[in-house]
Request: fold
Amino acid sequence: MQNTRVTVDDTMMVSAVRYALGRMSYIVGWTVDETIRVWADLSPNSRTVIERDVRQARRDGVVGMPIDGQEWDRLLTHIENQT
Reply:
């Protein structure tokens, strides 16, 4: 098994994204802002998990209101621009 760095920050960000997915609340924008802010500091595994979860929620249409979907799209655009 590969030795991966897992920090509280990583765990909290993955948890925050999973909590916010599907919500219709200000928490979506905050979560996207914070995820973008710390993206470069997250472990590759955490980045993979977050991207996978957001893409799956978009595919399944469970991202909340249209404005929430726009926020998640903003995160996905940021992720795509980092690669």
Summary: Residues 44-60 form the longest helix (17 residues).
